[in-house]
Amino acid sequence: MTALLFIAVCAAGGIGAALRFVVDGLVRARVRTVFPFGTALINVTGSLVLGFLTGLTLGAVLAPEWELILGTGVMGGYTTFSTASVETMRLIQNREYLPALVNGLGMLVLTVLLGLLGLWLGSLL
Length: 125
Fold this sequence. Notes:
mainly alpha; 5 helices; 0% strand; globular; transmembrane helix; transmembrane; transport
């Protein structure tokens, strides 16, 4: 990896984190519930996009360097497994067991399925 590519991935990670902050804030301002819809939306859409980017790269439509910048950088900064884990534990601590189950297991299943969907869509191009 070149120094320029490393800097680009780092900068892209910052862009992804800022995007996550904005999306989560917009969702929280509009949806008032104990369920962390913002984080769920972020992780699900991020998995779809990352799968799509991977499909494009495997089909030689997207250069591997761009997959690193957009996938590892932007989507790595955008998605957040640790926040999803903390929010699931917070739901359990608040005895919100069904939302905790839906958040923990539901997000796992949805992110994998949408990652596969993105991979398939990217491979069509």
